[in-house]
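User: Here's a chain of 155 residues. Predict its fold as tokens.
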Amino acid sequence: MTAISKGRSYEIGILPYNAFKQSESVEVASMNRTELKRFIFENYNVESDFPWLKYPNYEVFRHSNTQKWFALIMDIPKDKLGLPGSDLLDVVNLKCDTLLIGSLRCEPGFFPAYHMNKDSWITIALDGSVSDDKIKMLLDASYDATAPKARSKKH
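Assistant: Prediction complete.
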């Protein structure tokens, strides 16, 4: 399946769960934290900041004109997402269409939003379990969903 957003097309096909096993020879391109940050700065007119002293690796990406969030990159313990272990996992929270959230949560690498409204946001693991194209498509959707709405003029 191909999705088109902002003139870019993304392959968002759903791979079977076993396609992500390390023993398989399937290559799934996936962004890490650094690549995702680079992509955001290269493609959007945004600012980022680190609003919590206690969490220096939690980086918020905002629209420059409204300061509204559209992405939050964090490193959180795996057990906070219901995964085994307590080592840190890089993730990104994105605003997402409520109709899409339920189906995305059934796929590997997607989780209920960590410390955000679970009806409007989703957490995505940056560990290779979600393809670049799907992350980019959802990032575009998050950016658009949080963009200022055009006001209609009253006559």
